[in-house]
User: What shape does this take?
Amino acid sequence: TVLVQAIIAEGLKAVAAGMNPMDLKRGIDKAVVAAVEELKTLSVPCSDSKAIAQVGTISANSDETVGKLIAEAMDKVGKEGVITVEDGTGLEDVLDVVEGMQFDRGYLSPYFINKPETGAVELESPFILLADKKISNIREMLPVLGAVAKAGKPLVIIAEDVEGEALATLVVNTMRGIVKVAAVKAPGSAIAEGAGDGTTTATVLAQAIVREGMKYVAAGMNPMDLKRGIDKAVAATVEQLALIAKP
Assistant: This one.
């Protein structure tokens, strides 16, 4: 924040003095590249939990409790894990480790519930459809639903929104036992969060993968072959995945 404020302040001075804004931008871009390269040469990787705790403590205004909590979180999830910080309502800081992925969105229809005693939706080893747009036309969903029904597995749809004819058809399919479905709004979507450009959705849902995958399906590629290709590309085997979502 301090660096950004300084860049803006000095940049405005330069523009006011007659400098071309585009030349200023190019200069800032070059300076950023040079600064990042220098920081890389000066940086020292954290080799153990003690070092991580020290860095966390400094970042938390010398709060050792928070620093130790950050180190503990890093130990739990590893270098490739994701750590998020949220405001709490209690008096103490709490570390909550979630296996898999969790986001604050629930099912779009109570008719998807298959655990009435808990009011939850639980699907075992489902296919997951990620869409970076609103789904309202069921026709574009038919190839996917057909492939999922043929495979005999449930389906989780994560999109900016699912509404109208599409949502009604998914509910009917679920109630009749044709395809078990759970549709949820994407985390950080432009619709759910009121964002202007949907940037967060693009990041969370890996927009490029979705777009290219849909192109292959539209061109006639078997969705199952596409799924196997993606599985090989990421070198990951998913044995079991459950969705437990509450509205």
Notes: Strands lie at 127-130, 134-135, 155-159, 161-162, 181-185. The longest helix spans residues 21-42. The two ends are 36 Å apart (CA to CA). Residues 2-42 form one domain.
